[in-house]
Amino acid sequence: MRIKIINPNTTQSFTDALQRLADAVARPDTEILAVSPASGPASIESFYDEALAVPGVLEEIAKGDREQDIDAYVLACFGDPGLYAARELTDKPVLGIAEAAFHLAAMASACFSVVTTAPRVRFMTEHLVSRYGFGEQCKKVRTTPIQVLDLARSPEAAIAKVIAECLRAREEDKAEAIVLGCAGMSQYRAQIEQEIGIPVIDGTVAAVKLCEAMVDMKLGTSKVLTFNWPRPELANPGRSLKIA
């Protein structure tokens, strides 16, 4: 099977890291294609950034169905930007890494906390927790004094701050697992888990493995109503999106 990981920002080092991570965990018969859109924000740290990223995400979904024979998609940003719109563009599985991580954290533990980046994204993350129905299991959303791009510029210092916040979540929140709230943290999951001594869930790995399971089960996106194809009269003829 072919799984396409879409990094909604344009920072290529993050995309390359996602490719390596997914290659390491995917089954031998799974091919991973990690991409960034041609245009969009360098990082996603606000609702404005998310809105800028969505057109590129949708272009990559359409291209995957049209040209690349993709079996499933992963949106590798913890805001899951454009997730529901992407599901309207394809009948293949489309998973956001936040949604995937929350589901696995709830199965691996009685309760969890999310450790993410700068304080500005706290409300955005709390909104996701609520939207996906994990308000009872999620003890707290914890932010850190780092920006997303710090994970590329000075990863050791940034991850040290993430680990410190994870330890506080374990002690103060009584969290039994940690969800990493940024795709830029993905490659450091094992290091963080070793340091804090409780399960750490990375949404990228969670989404890849869930995609494999869904493809095996022949379980795609339902087109009966909510995620039905976009209405053809709303398609923008100036764009390359292929509407069914």
From TrEMBL:
**Entry EC no(s):** 5.1.99.5
InterPro entries tied to this protein: Asp/Glu/hydantoin_racemase (IPR015942), Asp/Glu_race (IPR001920), Hydantoin_racemase-like (IPR052186), Iso_Racemase_Enz_sf (IPR053714)
Concerning its family, UniProt says: Belongs to the HyuE racemase family.
The protein here is known as Hydantoin racemase
Q: What class of enzyme is it?
A: isomerase
- The protein's organism comes out as Zobellella denitrificans
Q: Name one GO molecular function term.
A: hydantoin racemase activity
Q: Which Pfam families match?
A: Asp_Glu_race
Its domain of life reads Bacteria
Query: Which chemical reaction does it catalyze?
Result: D-5-benzylhydantoin = L-5-benzylhydantoin; D-5-isobutylhydantoin = L-5-isobutylhydantoin; a D-5-monosubstituted hydantoin = a L-5-monosubstituted hydantoin
- What Gene3D superfamilies does the database record attribute to this sequence? 3.40.50.12500
